[in-house]
Amino acid sequence: MPGPGPQMMYALGSGTGLMRFSHGRFTPQHCLFYALNAFIGPDLCSFAEWMASFFPPGTAGRRLGGLAMEFVHHPFYYILVLGFPFSLFYAWLSRVLLSKGLVDTVSGVSLVHFDCF
Predict the structure, then answer these.
(1) Can you say whether residue 106 is alpha, beta or left, with left for phi > 0 and alpha for psi between -120 and 50 degrees?
(2) Of 82, 92, 94, 101, which has the highest C-beta tally within 10 A?
(3) What's the 3-state SS for 15-55?
(4) 1: helix, coil or strand?
(5) Cα(55)–Cα(95) distance, rounded to whole angstroms?
(6) For the residues of 89-114, what is the DSSP string, one character each?
(7) pLDDT at 3
(8) What residue intervals traverse the membrane (predicted)?
(9) Domain residue ranges in the chain
């Protein structure tokens, strides 16, 4: 998969389509967090592995970077390692952004963690 920029553009494009065809169930706020997850999500551990490559071979830092990459790019481990914590973070961020007036929703209600998950 390409880098985080194209992944974010794919998410914005498909999110725009989902907003159009979901009849209000997929809002711009959903699209924002969908694109943010596409930017941060899977490539976070690629970045960690790249940072760990600066450690000497055989050290704990190098092994930790490889282990992070292995866990996050597994279909089930991604949900447990990053999916659930990110969903809680995005729900909190949704409440904060909505209370400060930085995002607007039709209903005026922030996203819950299940929506973000």
Answers:
(1) alpha
(2) 94
(3) HHHHHHHCCCCCCHHHHHHHHHHHHHCCHHHHHHHHHHCCC
(4) coil
(5) 39
(6) HHHHHHHHHHHTTSS--SS--PPPHH
(7) 66
(8) 75-93
(9) 4-40+74-116
Q: Which residues of 19-32 are buried (b: 16+ CB within 10 A; e: fewer)?
A: beeeeeebbebbbb
Helix (H, G, I), strand (E, B) or coil at 10: helix
- The Cα–Cα gap between 4 and 25 comes to 26
The answer, as to whether pTM is greater than 0.85, is no
Q: Determine contact, residues 72/78, Cβ cutoff 8 Å.
A: yes
Q: What is the mean pLDDT of residues 32-55?
A: 74
Tens digits of residue pLDDT in 15-35? 888 888 887 778 888 888 888
Element (H, E) at 73: none
Q: What span, in angstroms and rounded, lies between the C-alpha atoms of 7 and 11?
A: 6
User: Residue 65 above 60 pLDDT?
Assistant: yes
User: For position 106, what pLDDT does the model report?
Assistant: 65
Q: Which two tokens stand for residue 4?
A: 């985080």
